[in-house]
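name: query_chain
kind: protein
chains: 1
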Amino acid sequence: MLRRFSTNFAIFSILLDGFLITLALYLSVYLRAFANRFPFVRPLPELSRIPFELYLIFPIVWLVTLLVFNIYDGRKNIRVIDEFSSLTFGAFLATVTSAGVLYLTYRDISRFQFALFAITAFLFLLIWRSIIRTTVHRKYSKKIEMRKVLILGAGIAGRKVGEQIKKESMYGLQVVGYLDDNPKKQKEVDVVGDLDIARTIIASTQIDDVVVALPLSAHQRLNQIVSELHDLSVRVWIIPDYFSLTLHKAGVFDFAGIPMLDLRAPALNEYQRMMKRSFDLFISVICFPFWLVLMAIISVLIKLDSPGPIIFKQKRVGENGKLFTMFKFRTMEDHAEEKNHLVETRDENGARILKRPDDPRITKIGKVLRQTSLDEIPQILNVLSGDMSLVGPRPEMPEFVDEYLPWQRKRFAIPQGMTGWWQVNGRSDRPMHLHTEDDLFYIQNYSIWLDLQILAQTFWVVLRRKGAY
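structure:
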C-alpha cells in the first residue's frame, strides 16, 4: 500500500511526473495543430515533429528541478500551500531551463507549442496532486489508514502534542491515549495507565508512533522505556524538557564529531537570512521612489498641522536585544512622551498599556497617519540600513522588554519588522507585549512565502483600519 509519506510513494510520484511530462510534450503537437484555428496564432501547415532526444531531456530537466525544490519530500510539503508553491516555482524554473535547452539545440520548434507543453505539464502535475490530497483528506476524515500514536506523559508537553495532532488532520495521526505514572493524571479519561504497560499497549493496539513527553525528573525512566521498546516495530519521538531552555528553537548539529542538541540554534539559517535580506533590499529599492514622494507630501502636512519635528526617533530593541533608533512620522504633539502618565493604564495582570483610541496627545494628521499606518513609512530607512526587516516581530520599547518573561525574549531571535504576524492579527487591539506568541509563531514557521502572505494581508488590514490608533 502506498502511504503518502513513504519512500514508495515518493518513487511513484517521480515516475508519474516523468510520464506526465512526456505525455504533455507528446500532446503539445496536437494542441498546437488545434490552435491553428485561432486568429492570433500563426498556422502551421502540418504537425510539428518533436525530436526523440527531447522526450528524454525534458523529463530529466523537470524532475531534477523538482527534486531541488523538495517536491518529493512529503514531510516538507504537508500543507497544500507549501506543496503548490514549491511546485509552481519548480515548474517555472524547469520551464526556463527547458527553453534554454531549445535555444541551444532545436530552435525551430514553435514557441507557442513550447508554451502549451509547459502549461499542460504544470496542470498535469497540479491536478494529480490535488486528487491525491482530496482522497487522502477523505480517508483521514473517515479515520482510514491513520497512524496510531501513544503519548507517554500527560503533562503540558504531552497535552500540547495531543491537541496539535487533533487539530492538524492532514498528518493522518490519531492519538490512542496517554500513559503517566502520576496517580492524579491517571484519573483523566484518556490516560489508560502507567508507563509500565507501555510495551503491552503498543503490541496489543498496533501503535505506529510513540511520543515521549516526560519531565527532566524522569530522565532515568526515559532510558528504561527506550530500552524496553528497542525491539518493537514502532517509531519513538522524544520531546525533552530541554526545549524550555531554548531561545527560539533547537537543532541537532555536529560538534567535534559528536551529534549534539544545540539549544541556541539560529532561528534562520544562512540561506534563509540571505534570502530575507535580499528580499528586503529588492522591495525597498524598487519602491523607494514611491516612498520618497509620499514622504515629502506627508512631511509638509505634518509641518502645517502642528509645531515640532517631522520625524519621531525612538530607541527600540532589535535582533538579539540590540538597541537601535527607529524612525516614524510624528503623530503626537511634541514631547508627548513626557505625558505618558496621562494615558498609561494596567490590565488585570498588572501589565502596562500605553495605547488607547482617545489619546489626547495625537494630532489631527497623526490620527490619519496611524489609521492608515503611513506613519511607519520612514522605517524603510531602518530596513535599508539593516536594523529592521520588512516582515518580522515588531521592535519593542526597552522599558517593556525589561518586564518580559524569559520565554518572551525569544521574539528577538530574528530581525524585527515593519509589519508582521501580530500586526495583521489585531494591531493595537492586541497589545504587542501581551501577545508575544504571535511573534513566536512567525519565527517557528518562517518562510519567504509567509513574508509574502503577511505583506499581502497588511494591505487589506490597513484598508480596514481595524485596531489602528
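note: Residues 270-305 form the longest helix (36 residues).
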